[in-house]
Amino acid sequence: MAGAGSAAVSGAGTPVAGPTGRDLFAEGLLEFLRPAVQQLDSHVHAVRESQVELREQIDNLATELCRINEDQKVALDLDPYVKKLLNARRRVVLVNNILQNAQERLRRLNHSVAKETARRRAMLDSGVYPPGSPGK
């Protein structure tokens, strides 16, 4: 009986290329990870959207506080609160940038996984193996 890394032999005695155990494992692992990568990407996208909404709300609140501060006849010192809001906005923008970079890396990883899976499928379908692979 042929092992996972050996090629089968046809009735005419010519070798018939088949998937190796390593190729099957790699493809299975890629297919196993794909849903997790896609789910993580969708969660990062949702967080980024909420970060943008939060930043807009902070901007609106800071603008409103400045307007209230200018309209008040009694001097209220809202400057510390405005500064806190602007500091919070800066942190939100920073987190959003970090998430954007992580999402871009995740998108590139997902693209690479899809490309490698397609390449391996094409090799398996055509029976062509790279030099040095056990499928020869």
From TrEMBL:
GO terms assigned for molecular function: SNARE binding
Domain of life, source organism: Eukaryota
Principal location listed in the UniProt entry: membrane
One Gene Ontology CC term in the entry: synaptic vesicle membrane
Keyword annotations: Coiled coil, Cytoplasm, Cytoplasmic vesicle, Membrane, Synapse
GO term, biological process aspect, one: lysosome organization
Stored InterPro entries: Snapin, Snapin/Pallidin/Snn1
Segments passing through the bilayer: none
Entry's localization field: Cytoplasmic vesicle, Secretory vesicle, Synaptic vesicle membrane
Coiled coil, from the record: 85-119
Listed name of the protein: SNARE-associated protein Snapin
Species annotation: Tupaia chinensis (Chinese tree shrew)
